[in-house]
Request: fold
Amino acid sequence: MKIKIAASILAANPLRLEEEVNRVQDAGVDLIHVDIMDGHFVPNLTMGPFIVKGLKEIARVPMGLHLMVEHPSKFIKPFREVANEGDIFEFHIESKDDPREVIRLAREAGFRAAISLNPPTHPGRVEELLEEVDMLLIMSVNPGFAGQKFIPEVLPKLRHLREMAPEGLDIEIDGGITEENVAQAAGAGANIIAAASAIFKAPDPARAVRNLRRLAQEASKLTVEM
Ligand code: DX5
Ligand code: ZN
Reply:
């Protein structure tokens, strides 16, 4: 599968967001990953429609809106108003809303829909939704902050869900990805690699994007050939 790189702006310099986003877009990232936190679902507050509205003006690739919020359905409309058609509404299975309803409403509004699961969450919770979503997002850290350590225990779950998923389903891995572990993640079946620190805290973000892509692509080829 084609490897895609999603640059998570949670580790970008917020005062130079335009410059930072353009830099990674010039380096060829496939998605801008926007971490939205409500202070309830996770103990942090980050970006809302105000920032997404600004990003829409400069986005040349789709935005993945990663909603770490208790009630995703409440936010479909406010984000829809400031996002582009086909941007991805990535919400959590651990949230309090009915996942089928959120998928339906997000799609109806013009989003693509993705379901996300936290490291401790059993894969069985999303198996029967795999046919209904455009993307699956597997967290490899407990959500809330950039710069945490990758949890390798999620790899068997990733491998299992890749086997269960319809052919060609985009599976994103998010959290603690580095040049050291990206091959493991891609080898286990992730084809979208989200990274914040590994890109924006690197001395040369463009180079970091190219390295992550190359390492992931090599690992995914190896798995296919095995
Ligand atoms: C964590 C966020 C991640 C985070 C990744 O709650 O969902 O997208 O920004 O940051 P790194 O790549 O630094 O772990
Ligand atoms: Zn995220």
